[in-house]
Structure formats: structure tokens, C-alpha cells
Amino acid sequence: MINLELPKKLRASANQAHQVAAQIFRPISRKYDLAEHEYPVELDTMAAMVEGLADSGTQKIGGAAGGRNDEAGDVEFVSNANGGNMSALLNALETSWGDVGLMLTIPYQGLGNAAIAAVATDEQLARFGKVWASMAITEPSFGSDSAAVTTTAVLDGDEWVLNGEKIFVTAGERSTHIVVWATVDKSLGRAAIKSFVVPRDAPGLSVARLEHKLGIKASDTAVLLLQDCRIPADNILGSPEVNVEKGFAGVMQTFDNTRPLVAAMAIGVTRAALEELRAILTDAGVEISYDTPAMNQHAAAAEFLRMEADYESAYLLALRAAWMADNKKPNSLEASMSKAKAGRTGTDVTLKAVELAGSLGYSQRLLLEKWGRDSKILDIFEGTQQIQQLIVARRVLGKTSAELK
Ligand SMILES: Cc1cc2nc3c(=O)[nH]c(=O)nc-3n(C[C@H](O)[C@H](O)[C@H](O)COP(=O)(O)OP(=O)(O)OC[C@H]3O[C@@H](n4cnc5c(N)ncnc54)[C@H](O)[C@@H]3O)c2cc1C
């Protein structure tokens, strides 16, 4: 039988994240939307809390810290584990309901943390388990085509020497570490792309500038330069061997953990917009009925029901992808499906909510217009809508990336 109830332990941690979102994020949401590049000092209190919780072994507040696939947490059923991925997903959803820009700048919860959690050795987890790691893949010459990495890593004695430029790095200025994708041998193609943990104070690493953006303004987005940047040899994640047979699988595996998290962010913003819209429609005397066919209701109520159904399906797809990761089931297809659905639903619902709320929706008196701007990025980073659809199509049709591009 399918049981759609969340386990008790996960409910408690999601509830805690919701309280943080409601009491810390929402009150400062507009302030940091208007003050781009200003550090949200209120998050320092949270950082202390997050660290305290991590020390006590309790689940972290935010979400992007992700979880190892073998980290079985609360086990409600005999053989089904709900572990780090599921918990991280729910926390990301709740905090994004509060403010997704602030969520992306929660200390110690970067997308790089999820990458580390996915592929680090036990020794590396001990060293990097409590850092704040951003993720640097994109370069001036590519975005979607992540096999086109040109940043190089050359082993020199007991150090890697990295050279290249990384752009659009979320939390690239504030994080303590950056997970950098670089090639150890360009002639060997995509199999030679590895990820490296670069500490903020590594010699040769610098922030060139910060971007001004449409939304998620509370989150810093940096251009990073690596100029003969030196890091210890054992900061490479996974094996330094280049396995041409295995190809790109090593680094790509991190997306299976991070895509459901970005889906969760979109679902959180979607829920915020739906709640606000429901209140506005109710105030305007529009009844949303679950007993009457949509076509017999007010047009706005019918739209609401359609959007709520999209929200529910995005939520369930994301839960499935995280559950599969926690239960060591390959989830690339489901991770992409969840991100495609949630990314599109987020932009659709938030902008429709602005439309249905009329001039109030477009004004800064509410956060609806902000959510409309914030949600767009969730359909772009960690793979655009089109890229997720491409991956789904390849998996469903059994085609390789060379056969379907
Ligand atoms: C605010 C922000 C934060 C970001 N944070 C990070 C980060 O932390 N780390 C990081 O590494 N990167 C980050 N990025 C970069 C982001 O991942 C890329 O922007 C994204 O992957 C798309 O790449 P691109 O912008 O080069 O677009 P392109 O790849 O040039 O794509 C342009 C358009 O073409 C479409 N397209 C491309 N290829 C195909 C295809 N084969 N079939 C059909 N359509 C296709 C795309 O969907 C898109 O609509 C961030 C970007 C932004 C804006």
C-alpha cells in the first residue's frame, strides 16, 4: 500500500525549518531583495544554530547539505529508509517557502556540500563534512554542456595546480570552500573531468566580481579566478584515475543529489505563492471548491485548482527522487523529472499568481512579484528545463548523449 504520510522524525525537522523560514526569513525577505550584495547578518545567528544542530547529530535546518545515499535515518517501514536526502529535501522546501535567496545563502548548506556528501571518501567527509561549499562548474565558454570544462588541474608533487575561470558561482564569495570541476587531461575528454575541494584561502583563488540579478538577490553569485591555485593532492573528490569506460559518471552523480533539492526549492516558492493567492481570492469572495467540477467554478478558482495539482505532482516527484537516493536506487531519470516539473511549475504558478492578484500582485506591497522573479533561476541552474527534458528523453528512449543532443 502507498503511504503518503511523512515519517514523524522528518515532520519534526521540516517543522523546525518552517519556523526558521517564517520567523527569520520572511521578515527580512524584502530588505535583502532591495539590498543586493549586502550580507544578511541575521543568518549568523542561524549559522550558530546550524552548527549546534550538526554537532548534536540533529538534522540541519536548510537543505543543500544533502546526504549520503547510505545514510539511513528514520526507518518507518521494514526495508524503506528515509535518510539524508529526504530530510534535506524537506528542509530545502520549507526554507525556500520563507525566501529562496536567503536559503541559498544559509551558511554550511551550499550545493557543494551535497556534492561532497555524494562522492567523498570517509576521510574526506571527516575533513569537509562541516565546511560551507559552493559549486563551480560553469565557465565563460559553456553552461549546459558540462562536458566542455576547460579549467585544468595538474598534479605537482603533493599538490594540484588549478587554472581557469568559473562564472555564476552561487555563494561563491561567502562560502568557505568551493567544489571546482576541472580536467586532469583534456585529451581524454569528459572522463578526465574531476571535482576538487578548494579552500577559500587557497593561494591563487580570487573573486573577480559579483553579478547583479533578476531575483534571488540575497544570494551572492560570483566570478572566480583560479590562477596557479594550489590545493593538497587529496582534495580531489573520488578517484584521481581517469576511467574512460566509466566516462563522466563520477562527477555527474552529484546532480542526482542536487537536482531534487533544487526541485524542492521551486516547490517551496510555489507553495508560498499558492498560499498567498488563496488568501487573496478568499478575501475577494472567490470560493475554491473541491466538490464542484473546475469548469463550474470561478475562472480564478479553476486556475488555482490546476496549479495546485501541478504543485502536488511536483512535490511527489521530488519525494520519489530523494527516497530513491536514500534507498540506493539509481535516480537520474527521476531527479531530472522532478526538477523539470518543479522548475516549470514554480515559474508558471508564481507569475500566474501575480496575474490573478492584479495590480496588488505586481506591487511591492506583497512578495508575489519577488517570488515571480526568484523562481526563474530554479528552472535554469543545476540544468535548465530543456536539459532536464533531454535527459528524461535519453533515459526513456535508451539513447546515449551522442545519439540525442
Ligand atoms: C543566478 C545563477 C546562479 C548560478 N549558480 C551556479 C553555480 O552555483 N554553479 C555553477 O556551476 N553554475 C551556476 N549557474 C550557471 C547555470 O548552471 C547555467 O546558467 C545553466 O547551466 C545554463 O547555462 P548557460 O547559461 O550557459 O546557457 P546555455 O547552455 O547557453 O543555454 C541557453 C539556452 O539554450 C538551451 N539549450 C542548451 N543546450 C540545449 C540542448 N542541447 N537542447 C535544447 N536546448 C538547449 C538552454 O536550455 C537555454 O535555454 C548559475 C546561473 C545563474 C543565473
UniProtKB/TrEMBL annotation:
Protein family per UniProt: Belongs to the acyl-CoA dehydrogenase family.
Protein name per its UniProtKB record: Acyl-CoA dehydrogenase family protein
EC nos: 1.-.-.-
Key words, A-Z: FAD, Flavoprotein, Oxidoreductase
One MF term in the entry's GO annotations: oxidoreductase activity
Enzyme class: oxidoreductase
Names of the cofactor(s): FAD
Superkingdom, taxonomy of origin: Bacteria
Ranges where the Acyl-CoA oxidase/dehydrogenase middle domain occurs: 134-229
Species annotation: Nocardia thailandica
Domain (Acyl-CoA dehydrogenase/oxidase C-terminal) ranges: 246-397
One Pfam family it belongs to: Acyl-CoA_dh_1
